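Problem 12. The chain below contains 228 residues. Write out its predicted structure in token notation.
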Amino acid sequence: MVNMIKRAERNVPDSTAKYVYCVIPCPTERKSFGSLGFDAGEVYTLDYKDLAPVVSDVTYRDYAANEEEVVVHRNVVEQIMLEHSVIPVAFGMAFKTRKLLQIAMSAGYLAMQKAEQVVDGKVELGVKVFLPKDQAEMESARREECSSDFLQHLLAVSGDWKKLKLFSDRLVLNSAFLVDKSAIDEFSLRIGMLTEKYDMLKVQYSGPWPAYNFVDIHILGGKRRGFR
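Solution.
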């Protein structure tokens, strides 16, 4: 098995720049996810101890956050999370060589181990609850009652949650929930029941996503390359 991995990796020059999409538990051998990456590049795993950065070979450059490339990054991660628990990595993380990527992995190894425990077998689900457009106001006590009702029912099947910014006066609730994959159906059922109960409100339910709001790890560029 080890010899097979080494033979596969000999075909990937260490000097080629690596773009990192996410980090997963290390598979038993190098794994390819197909030509999903930038410029239809192969997306595959590299190994670092018991973790595996998921990368594609790229021409090294600064990655500005334009919509088209952000979609490529997101689509790769969402495809991988169908099979694996995913530690998300910020957009735009490219390394000139595999050696530099290994240095970054070393710097963040302990933090990533902790993050792996958080995301193992779990996904992020998003819930927004809006007032209708013709009802931009709701009494503060009524808002609190509605928000608490949603949270009480959804936290019963969630491992954790994050309160997100209420960016509109119409927002009653904006939260992310960390949910075990086995509990997604139950979570969805509860969303349906709450939507029927509060049929005067608009409920936006999204996901599953990588646990972006529960893992604060970034590969840093420049001289501060590493994880935080």
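Discussion. The first strand starts at residue 17 and ends at 25. Students who got a different answer should revisit the alignment rule from Section 12.3.
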